Amino acid sequence: MTKMIFVNLPVTDLPRAMRFYDALGFTNNPQFSDDNSACMVWSETISVMLLTHDKWRVFTSRPIPPATSSEVMLAISCESREAVDRMNEAADAHGGQADVNPVQDLGFMYNRNLADPDGHVWEAFWMDMSAMPAEE
Fold first, then answer.
1. pTM reported for the whole predicted model
2. For residue 11, what is the domain's CATH number?
């Protein structure tokens, strides 16, 4: 079996969260979605499970942090610098927030951070390994 990752995120409004992730380029897998959760697919090996707070509490009794806090930043690769920009623009236009941290442009690597409507932080990045500076 191919190794995969399913990132589980608690959300306050499932339809809004689904629209947001759809706008960023994720697609819904209805096979793993219902009235309390949605599987949003980024690639063959990466999916995001959006869970209502009630559904989240089925898996853990730990408290859901407020949207103004950060516990993790999820980095996701994009095919170009322009794709990174488009993802941030889509976040801003669909209830999220673009550039929650300073933009980083190292030439060979470019990233911008965005937050979804529930405050989950994503680092959209592009990297050209062939242009990476040689180690000294």
1. 0.89
2. 3.10.180.10
